[in-house]
Amino acid sequence: MCENFSKPINYQKEKEELSELYKNRIIYSLPVRAGYWSNELAIREQLEFAYNYKKEHCQLLIQKTRKMFRNLLRPTILAPESAYIAYNKNYQIKSYGISHLTPCGQETLQPLYLSGVITEREIECTQHFTHGCVLSASPNRNPCVRNTFVIVGCDSEKTGMVNYGEDVYIQVLESDAAPLYVQCENSTMDTFGKHLGLRLSRSPDIYCRFKILHWKPQLRHETCGTFVLYNAHVIIQHTASGHNLATEFHNWIPTFFGTECTISCHTFRDTHRMETSENVWKIVGAEKTDMDHVQLGTRQPDCGK
Fold first, then answer.
1. Nearest to 242 by CA among 276, 265, 218
2. 87 or 300: which carries more pLDDT confidence?
3. Alpha helices in 189-304, H assignment, sequence order
4. For 114-147, what is each residue's pLDDT tens digit?
């Protein structure tokens, strides 16, 4: 009843078929293999030549990054401490600060400093500040090119002391060619947030004008026209839009210098219609001990206990 479907294997026939396939295989001659190796070697030599050329002409990304650091982190000399803010002097623009916990568990304020930024797209073509560079708020307090600014009058010959409520330009200390001014953009396109962004501009137009106001609204009218106090809390208001220069503590971005806070022109208010700490700034020169962050007459706690 059962049939045996298994057939004997013809090993001789299989051997002959394999032998026939081996004879008909595609054979690459020595010149073909040598040509492939030569092509690979030529590509490798071309890449090596391109690398050496870029290295000799300082066009490697690591070389451009180091040059950018040398240019922007070069130390600067700030204006000495005085009673009032003056035109054409080197200052830092410092935000009110964010809450920061020390290793001992104490809560202190960490100020942030207005700083210029060169992005990954810009570093390929420039290692200096140029038209269109963005700004941020950096925790680095060491005075250097990227966080040093000059208050310039709208009249180029303006000298003396800066007045509250007067239109001024904020000029970054370093640029590749023409002077660069802080400019508030008239749109939110191509910015890090939903508010009006800030960039550096070579054209000192209406969008580059700012006013320095007293931080208390009830004192702004009577202080208008008086000298701006040194190291005092102020509001920096954009003249064209009416918005205030703001540090957006909730929005941080990665940069070549670390994670930094974004800057915008937006008025943050509390329930009493008062500007909040995002809009509060100080204009400082060669800083001594900031008495706002020092506790006097108390012994520092022992962190080991």
1. 265
2. 87
3. 217-223
4. 999 998 888 888 888 988 899 999 999 999 999 9
The span from the CA of 169 to the CA of 179, in Å, is 11
φ/ψ region of 267 (left if φ > 0, alpha if ψ in -120 to 50, else beta) reads beta
* pLDDT digit string, tens, across residues 30-61: 555 555 667 777 788 888 888 787 777 777 88
What does each C-alpha distance from 1 to 4, 8, 72, 273 come to in angstroms? 10, 21, 96, 102
* CA neighbor of 82 nearest in space, from 224, 227, 194, 187: 227
Closest CA to 175 of 126, 121, 139, 140: 126
CA 99 to chain centre: 21
Global pTM exceeds 0.90? no
Classified as helix, coil or strand, 226 is coil
